[in-house]
């Protein structure tokens, strides 16, 4: 399972976006085709997806114009209409909007995140699984770029999507988990992936990241776990984004911060909207039981703490059911950690059950 790599030298978003789009022209087109299949299977017409993609560009332009400039430039470089790049970046919002219109929930996702803040001044220890649809395994990319001179960002994302999980040279990083709330709407707001991108581009502290997240009017829910490290000082918070407001979840007394796919903020949890077959709470309980291993300084030990499959336990490591519809073929496509001290990503292309000390890749 190949994860593509790309490094951008351009500081200007228009030049960077155009070069990116030109370099990955065919791959971005293929990514949109695959998402088109998922959108259709979720009940959205092509015309509606176009409208939502255009809305995503417009609302982003009012919030952070340079991100719209970069998306438009990717479209120009790849030869695709701009609304398709808007739709890729708003894929979370489109799936949520489709569910809202059908009066349904988005088929369950299974991402699990664990962070530990050591008390001895050493860097935070993080790990996450990224679970997504089996037929989208080829859209993975790690991308390094400089939004301004001297500020380096490394992100794991999908082809055509500006960011997801990542770390910057100011010692700040983000993890990413899906959520669902009763306030989610079909009026497309700022895409949550672009909230993560702006945090990586601009923030150097957890507080700055929080302010950026609070400034975005979202239409879909997500938790962005922000982790910071500066001269021996660590900090972390789970920012639960929803149209109903922004929740903050802080580490426990032992420095552990865990999140799966349900709200932990008490106020927002009252408006939770989740699939009936969700195993999010079971996975969170399993993470809590395994916190000693999740606090390990050894990355492989942390990954092995996520080794749990259904039906024998909570599926921290997901494998697709070949008989399930396209909307429900979940697979753990990445196991990923943030190295905040070195400003790099450490990842294994697949689930925890395939991890060995030699399968880790650095970027």
Automatic annotation (TrEMBL):
Pfam families xrefs: AAT
InterPro entries assigned to the protein according to its UniProt record, in alphabetical order: C45_proenzyme-like (IPR047794), Peptidase_C45 (IPR047801), Peptidase_C45_hydrolase (IPR005079)
Residue span, Peptidase C45 hydrolase domain: 127-347
Gene3D superfamilies reported in the protein's UniProt record: 1.10.10.2120, Penicillin V Acylase, Chain A (3.60.60.10)
Residue stretches spanning the membrane: none
Protein name: Peptidase C45 hydrolase domain-containing protein
